[in-house]
Write a structure and sequence with these properties.
By secondary structure, the protein is of the alpha+beta class. It has a single domain (about 45-200), classed as Lipocalin. About 15% of the residues lie in helices and about 30% in strands. The protein contains 5 helices and 8 strands, in the order ααααβαβββββββ. Strand 2 and strand 3 form a beta hairpin. It is globular. About 35% of the residues are buried.
Length: about 210
């Protein structure tokens, strides 16, 4: 496994003289430790917002212990939807069957057949904003302005999101950060998003406050 500095060099759109820009694969991401994952987040390759609009991704948690995965989940779905009225790029999480990620997992559904969604967010510019560990990047997921109920812990989410490889939207990497007023609570928790495909119009979920 490459060291953290090698990981940063590989992920960053600019390499030092003599270094080769390498593609970071999903398998490599799954083997990284927290320091190496933060190296990719710190490299801060920006999202291509047009490329991710109206798409779905399989999410894989990279940091929680196995006993928490057994209680909660290891994999999930994240969506990105360009609101046709406001133009805002927003999304939500979907609970999925824990069948791995080689192919897109099926969503879990309620008794009416609707996919179980939670944790809505907006994709926002991070320019000029302060983040923990002096992170500076282009985009983050803002859960506090996406219509989540005030008492929902998800409303505290303030999560940096980057492309794993510059100029490529196949893999994204997120860092779990909470913000309570002016106080940041950065978690040692990272998750990777693997592109599935287009978001179907019938799968669009309205904001919780709509």
């Amino acid at each position: 496994m490459a060291g953290v500095e090698d990981t940063v060099a590989a992920a960053h759109p600019y390499c030092a003289p003599g270094e080769t820009l390498m593609t970071i694969t999903l398998d490599a991401i799954l083997k990284m430790n927290s320091a190496e994952l933060f190296g990719v987040v710190r490299a801060a390759a920006p999202l291509d917002l047009d490329a991710i609009a109206d798409t779905t991704y399989t999410g894989i948690d990279l940091s929680l212990p196995s006993w928490m995965h057994a209680i909660l989940w290891k994999s999930f779905r994240k969506t990105f939807h360009r609101d046709p009225v406001t133009g805002v790029l927003r999304g939500w999480n979907v609970k999925v069957q824990q069948t791995g990620w080689d192919t897109p997992p099926e969503p879990r559904r309620d008794k009416r057949g609707r996919a179980l969604s939670f944790g809505h967010y907006e994709v926002r510019s991070a320019r000029g904003l302060k983040f923990p560990r002096a992170w500076q990047g282009e985009h983050y997921l803002d859960y506090g302005h996406a219509g989540n109920p005030a008492l929902d812990p998800a409303a505290l989410g303030y999560c940096p999101l980057v492309s794993v490889n510059a100029g490529d939207s196949e893999l994204l990497l997120g860092w779990e950060v909470f913000k309570m007023g002016p106080v940041f609570v950065p978690l040692n928790d990272f998750w990777v998003l693997k592109r599935e495909g287009a978001l179907k119009p019938e799968d669009v979920v309205p904001r919780p406050d709509a």
